[in-house]
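Practice record 12: protein with beta-L-fructofuranose.
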Amino acid sequence: MKSYAAVDLGASSGRVMVGRVGPDSLELTEAHRFANRPVRVPEGLRWDILRLHAGVLDGLRAAGQVDSVGIDSWAVDYGLLDADGALLGNPVHYRDARTEGVAEKVWASVPAAELYAATGLQYAPFNTLYQLTAARESEQLAHAQRLLLIPDLLTYWLTGEQGTELTNASTTQLVDPRTRDWSYGIAQRLGIDLELFAPLRQPGDPAGLLRPEVLEETGFTGPVPVTAVGSHDTASAVAAVPAGAGERFAYICTGTWSLAGLELDAPVLTEESRAANFTNELGLDGTVRYLRNIMGLWLLQECLRAWGDPDLGGLLLQASKAPALRSVVDAGDAAFLAPGRMPERIAEACRRSGQPVPESPAEVTRCILDSLALAHRRAVADAQRLADRPVDVVYVVGGGTRNALLCQLTADACGLPVVAGPTEAAALGNVLVQARPHGLVRDLADGRQLLTRTQPLTRYEPRGDAERWREAEARLAGG
Ligand code: LFR
């Protein structure tokens, strides 16, 4: 039996989970959970990274002695270090407005189609490549000697060692998904210095030992290794999709975002795929995460914030009784990316498309959940078509598995059974990689089998109202 601390940082909260793994057992418990509250300062929206580091240390102390530590977080964002290895300012939040209008500048040097063919990444204004272009003239970048993605930065603070973990590196849009190495040509043409990045690390690689100061602060007895896991939370979550070997499945990682797609063994780099805004992020063991970003429960989180955080259970119950598919919005629309005024923005989108405007919080909530399910349906259907890979089942993992209405609507919309769980998928995927060096988990398939045997899963059957979803889809497409 071994114990692993999985640090999993999401956009709204961080947690330190402890995974206890034996030859045929896996038990996950929460040691510590803390808020991740971005802060708006005059220059823009920033991550409170020192608070997060403190949360990690508190969490490790609460976890008690473990055999190793692994860190995953959201993607694309980074900290810059000076020549002494000191952090130059707070990392910029990917929802910050600095990347507005930057893509056009990039595409003037490297056309969007060429960029897609080389990197396989969907267009999102926050891809690191656009962030670095937006920062080109900044003092900070001029002084920077090193760029570390968020989980790599926190790993560096724990161990003193620097690296760039591959699954997360693939979200920078500076990696070639065919070679799984940097896209040197693209970086050069855009004037991005790849020397800023520390050498690539593969998931499963050792990432150093906890520094003596960290041992002292956490009460651990050394040596305690840190393992590079799939440090992009979505890579870890996909590794914890409890699919059986040979099963034909799609997955949806739900949380602040919904990431919906397929696991492939090679990227799809066609023009059609680019037009459909599908991404080819890198997964564990040579896999490709072929998926689309959907706004996800962010839409609801922002409404809850605007409504003064009412009781969610009660709201979902009311929403389940509200009329279905009355109004839907495009949950893939980047117009919903920025924070603020979410109920109004949703109402405006309904008005613009000539649909009834949802009024009460329950109606707005129903509109959001219907819209998410519809976006799930489109992504699952598009992925199958674009990759030419039919599926029989949809696995839903992550925070959204707690939302039974969303899971049922997703099954209805996709016209496929949904298997929901585990909720803490990213932490479990993180643990499964840490267990590899100890011989407790061999590979992806082996880890998934262990999850199937040990984690509670809920199955939702589609209720056969396919025609209504087709009608809603046509309504959204303006047809
Ligand atoms: C989910 C996620 C998505 C990524 C977005 C921004 O937490 O990591 O995969 O596109 O956050 O980093």
